[in-house]
Amino acid sequence: MTTYALPEPSQPPAAAPHTVYTVASGDLRPAANTTCWPTQEKLESDLAAALVDAGWNVRRGHDVDPDKGHGFIDSQRAGIEVFKQLPPDAPLIVVEGVWQYSHHVLAGLRSHRGPVLIVANWSGEFPGLVGLLNLAGSLTKAGRDYSVLWSADFTDDWARQGLRTWLETGTLSHDTGHVRPLPALPRDPETELGAALARQLRHEKAIIGVFDEGCMGMYNAIIDDELLNPLGVYKERLSQSALVAEMRKVSDEEAQQVRDWLDGAGMTFHTGTDEATELTDAQLLSQFRMYIATLRIADDFGLDAVGIQYQQGLKDTVPASDLAEGLLNNVERPAVRSRDGSRELYPGVPLPHFNEVDEGVAVDSLVTNRIWTAMGLDPATTLHDIRWGEEYEGRFVWVFEISGSVPASHNGGYDKSYSMRQPPMFFPLGGGTLSGVSKPGEIVWSRVFVRDGRLHVDLGRGTSVELPREETRRRLDATNPQWPIMHAVLHGVSRDQFMARHRANHLNVAYGADADTADKALRAKAALFAELGVEVHLCGDVQL
């Protein structure tokens, strides 16, 4: 009889008494981790002081690496190794002062048996709040219980009481009384339109082109085919290498024609000559090649929407995708013809682009485009990061800020839009943004997400408000001045209610012509999702 050497199961360490363990999930990009590390150190120090004051010991679950210059978990393998050394039943806090890749810690969090708390600092300097919301959405999709908490420095009574509650009970709840299920909808032109468009989508079907999945570790942004297909939505899986290959077929003359069109439309380009730190004409022409190549590939496959991952891989190959993305999402944009010149591609309409290949945004943008177009509204839609916010003159005003582009109509037109070089920390080959300050107006905001193996959508109303120039400048300087910004006030949803409920780092926004049409568009959108079998939740003050 053959005998084999059986592996000895590793024995996890025992938890130290009255001790909280901490981990920090980071970026995959070394420059981002080293740049953001001082902010992370301060957050961990502030949190540790609050935990010690509550009578607990704090033990960091992994060391700072002096060679790398930071203490983040920076890969999935590193995360698995870290969690092998953690007591599986210990209370665990994931501390996030930065953007993080959820899959770095997802494997460990899935099997960790102790209570989990995700915390972030309330700061716009680096996107820690965005990282918290992404990890929360990812754990929601994974079916793993967790709690969340945020504070400027964890010296305030609200945050410290929240910590004590979680330490004593292993859970922390927040007020989400602003959320209610969709009631029976009235039969009116808007609800009939939504239901009819849903039936059309399910019958005729739509294809979303996915240039690689999983951008920046966003597990929550991947929706399985089994959930998409019943809606009538199917994926065309495309390789970003094919996009680069197609870009090489675009002539200099074609790319220059896009630049000439934008110059004529009044867009401002902040250019220089240093490729390492400034936006250059060569970078812009590469981005215009990507815009043309994307439309040609979309035409090849009959796509109804498209998403470019950019970041890993593509960021080391070509300049940023942002300018192409913003152009695609706008009704008015430079014309692109088929390779033989015989046809204009997608004439007079946007090709909805879901930034960072967020497939929740893909579904949302697809249906928004159809509803807004049918109602005669501007169908330009975009996602934003929920970046940060503060009170201004007695009301809380969010900073919604996506990392690169919005459709120009959101800024009031190309003559109110500008392009700046993407930060070298994230974008080594540069490339320009499509930026501006979102115009004042009534908006519908939304988020499609996965929970309990089903698709859900949160719908709400808000107002994009105008702030004084100096306040806008302060908020841009406190975050990323290269990126487009929206000053948003949500109707009937407080800061903490929104943070407690939202299941993603992104949300979608689209404008109504006025409050009445925004209400009608939201009602049509709710009817469409309900007809498709998506569970609809209304958030805050929504008029049906």
TrEMBL record:
Any one annotated GO CC term: cytoplasm
Record-level Gene Ontology MF annotations: arabinose isomerase activity; L-fucose isomerase activity; manganese ion binding
Keywords noted in UniProt: Carbohydrate metabolism, Isomerase
Domain of life: Bacteria
Family annotation (SUPFAM superfamilies): FucI/AraA N-terminal and middle domains
One of the GO BP terms on file: L-fucose catabolic process
Annotated protein name in UniProt: Fucose isomerase
